[in-house]
Amino acid sequence: xxxxxxxxxxxxxxGLNEGGIPIGSVLVHKGKIIGRGHNKRIQDGSPILxxxxxxxxxxxxxxxQIYKESVIYTTLSPCSMxxxxxxxxxxxxxxxxxxxxxxxxxxxxxxxxxxxEVRQDPECIALMTDFIAANPTLWHEDIGV
Length: 145
Prior knowledge:
Blueprint: H1 3-17, E1 24-29, E2 32-38, H2 41-44, H3 51-59, H4 64-68, E3 70-74, H5 80-88, E4 93-96, H6 106-111, E5 115-118, H7 122-134, H8 136-143
Parallel strand pairs: 3-4, 4-5
Antiparallel strand pairs: 1-2, 1-3
């Protein structure tokens, strides 16, 4: 198991245990986690704190060079907002836990030169499949349906 994807999964589980949506993310620079986060839309009443956005927020202010040398891991395919942040900061590589329950903007990221590596991790798939089945209204709110 990839330790960084496992760290993102741990973040997703934290979010679920807090009553939120189980999506987690970590930002990794040169083999070290420099930011971690999970979806906090429900917990914080925030329309923007998706897992990737929370990880970026928790990494704090960084130089452009740091982002350009980083990899972001996320348990679920990044939505338009999170993909925009990835593009804005020039993060060159995204490791995606799964894209079976939701396909975000992978085509846009790839078109813009970002390497998207989809793992189809069974634990990521189960977290989202179970959550969506139990909470379809919350899930639709999160993805703007």
